[in-house]
C-alpha cells in the first residue's frame, strides 16, 4: 500500500514537471497574446487555477511572474534594438495600455522604458 502511494506521488511530480515545462515553452511562444492564462488552460485541458497551482508547486514562482518576466525581457530587447514607439512595444508584448506597460516596466527594471532606451550603449 505504501509503495502505491509513493508511486502515485512520484507520478504527480513527474507530471507537474512536464506541465511546468510545457507551460514555460507555451508562454515563451505566446507571451504577446492577451488572456494568456485562459488560453494556456484551454491548450492543456486544465483549469486556470489548476495550472497556476502546478506551476507554483513545481517552480516556486507564479505563472504571472513568469509571464511578466518574459514580456519585460522582450520589451528590453525591442527598446534597445528598434525605434518603435513605446505604445507599439506595449501592444507587441501583450499590453493594451502603454501607461500600464510603463508602470510594470519601471517596477520590474527600476527605470521607465523611455529612460531605459536612452541609456542603451
Can you describe what's shown?
This protein has seven helices and no strands. It has two domains: 62 residues; 52 residues, Arc Repressor Mutant, subunit A (Orthogonal Bundle), CATH 1.10.10.60. The N terminus is likely disordered. The longest helix has 29 residues. The radius of gyration is 18 Å and the shape is elongated. The chain is mainly alpha-helical and 121 residues long. Keywords: DNA-binding, Transcription, Transcription regulation. It comes from Paenibacillus qinlingensis. It holds the Pfam family HTH_18. This is AraC-like DNA-binding protein.
Low-confidence stretches: 1-10
Task: Give the SSE order as H and E letters.
Answer: HHHHHHH
Distance between the termini: 63 Å
Overall residue-averaged pLDDT value = 86
Radius of gyration: 18 Å
Strand content: under 5%
Q: Say how many strands there are.
A: 0
Organism: Paenibacillus qinlingensis
Keywords: DNA-binding, Transcription, Transcription regulation
InterPro entries: Homeodomain-like_sf, HTH_AraC, Tscrpt_reg_AraC-type_HTH
Protein name: AraC-like DNA-binding protein
List keywords for this structure.
121 residues; mainly alpha; Arc Repressor Mutant, subunit A; 2 domains; 78% helix; elongated; disordered N terminus
Explain briefly what this protein structure is.
With 121 residues, the protein is mainly alpha-helical.
